[in-house]
Structures are given as C-alpha cells and as structure tokens.
Specification:
Layout lengths: L17 E4 L5 H13 L2 E6 L12 E4 L8 H11 L4 E3 L3 H7 L3 H5 L10 H8 L1 H11 L6 E3 L9 E5 L9 E3 L5 H7 L3 E5 L4 E9 L5 E13 L2 E7 L3 H14 L3 E9 L6 E6 L6 H6 L4 H10 L15 E3 L15
Parallel strand pairs: 1-2, 1-4, 2-3
Antiparallel strand pairs: 5-8, 6-7, 6-8, 9-10, 9-12, 10-11, 11-14, 12-13
Helix pairs in contact: 3-5, 5-6, 6-8
Amino acid sequence: MPHTSRPLGPDPDLAGLRVLVTGCGGPAGVAVVEELAALGAVPVAADCDPYAAGLHLGHASVLLPFADAADYPERLLAAAVDERCTAVIVTVGEELLRVAGREAEFAAHGVAAWFPSARAVADSLDKWAFAGRIEAAGVAGPRSALGGPEDLPGPWIVKPRAGRGSRDVYPVDDPADFPTLLRRVPEPLVQTRLTGREFTADCLIARDGTVLGAVPRWRAQTRAGISTRGTTFTDPRIDRLVTDLAAALGLTGVCNVQGFLDEHGPARVVEVNPRFSGGLPISLAAGADLVGQFLRATLGLPVHPDALRAEPGVTTVRWFAQRTAPVPALTH
C-alpha cells in the first residue's frame, strides 16, 4: 500500500482568502485547488473548458478564454476582481507567457500575483532554446540537435520543440526509424538519451534566485508524462542542479525540474516547467507546503523554508493523497 503522510494543516494567515486558480482542467490546477481548501483558503477554479472537472472543486468557477486570446490577460484580471480574489495562481505555461511582467497591473486592482519572467517562461516552453541556455551556462543535460540527429551519439529521443507531457515523444534505437519520426513529430528536437534513474523535483525559488525548497521524487510511474506514483528522496546534487538552473534561466517562483541521476556524476536536466507539476500531490503528501508557501510569498507574507522540507522515502500514488479538509462544493 502507498504510504501517505499529511502533516500540514490550515494556515491562519490564509484563512478565508479567495484565490483564483487557472488550469483546473489539468492535474496541477486540481491539486492546487484542493490544497488551498486544505489550507483554509477559498479557491475559485478557472479553466477555458466548460467541462473541466476541476471547475467543480472550487467555491466558485470561472470560464476563461484560451491563452492565445488577444484579451486573455485582461479577462484573467477581470475574473479575479469580479470574484473578489486576493490572489491569482496560474498553472498553465502558455498562460504564464501572456501575463509575465504584469504583476503591477494586477496589484493595482488589489490582486496579488507572482509570475516568472517572460524570458524564463519562453525558454522553458521552447525546448531548443532551453537546450541552448543550459549548454551556455554549463548545466548538465543531453546533447541536442534540431531537425535531425546530426552527429549526436545514440540511442536517442525525438520530441517536439514545443510540447507537453509525453505526446509525440519517441525513443529511437535504430537510425532507420528517423525518416518516419522526423516527418511525424512537429519541429522535431533530437537528443541523446540520458542514462540513470528519472526524477522530478518540485521547487520554490525566491525572487532573488535563492532556492527555498526542492522536493525530488523518483518517477516510478507516469501517465501522459505526469508522475502518478513516486518516492521522495534527498540528494545534494539535485539542490545544486536547481540552483544552477535558477541562475541560468532567471527562474523564480514555482517550477518542476525533470532529469536523470546516475550513481556517480552530476544530476542532469531534461526540461523545466515554470509552474506547479501534475505530480504535486506526491510532494504535498510528503509534507512540503509548496502551495501555502508560494501563496504566502505572493502575498508578501514571511516564507518558512522549514515548511518546504519533505519526508524522504514517502511512496505515494497521486490519486490517493490524503486530505485534511473537505473540498467545498461548487456555488455557481
């Protein structure tokens, strides 16, 4: 049976605060809404899909336009104001790209927000740009080529330059497979396949680049690229990797780092997502108050780094992470 610990409880400083959460059709948004309720806040669930299951988990629900809508930032802010929200948490990378740099605009309307920089978001979503940034900074990662394998040693991975999860991601052992896959995958990026054990780390990085917390877990089971079963662990090489990535990309706020770890050598990164991860409940179940501390920092409240420490060796199936407070019913 999976072990789930749930030492966290309500945060008196967050009690009753209304918080708009986007992306509630995805696992990250759902996890954040549920966690806010457990902390005593009042989550307002938002998504662009009227059938998103997560819309039924908030005290209220909001339908937003797609991230590429010309007025997306204005519509997001208007929704937060209309719902009397104190803060907004964006859990979709493409949405973050649209609102980056607009924190002051939200603050002027009484809505606290913490968005990563536009450059950090763009270079995280664009896997080719990301590969160039980490190579220039000397951060360990796979060798990469755009459009074909060039002289990269195999075995390989082929993936879209822009994509999410495991969609259109293919392992390649035989070079004869390249012609078919390179036609199938949109704007293909080819990388040398890394060896070792795969991990994900949920992280919170201060505005000055200091890593406040990093919770790594082994990716024991994934579905559509999302960790559904994992075991938390600690390793100083992960801490060094996250620190180096924060400096290389200018990352702040929440992010999740995916990579590989051998018995010897440095931790190596495959990609970074500048948002909460779909496997977040695993870190929460191990005791890391990532959502609460992120919201505290967003609101300008003191952050408690000790609250970001996770218990190592906790094995959790994401779907069964325990709650300490009931999820409120949808009001409209």
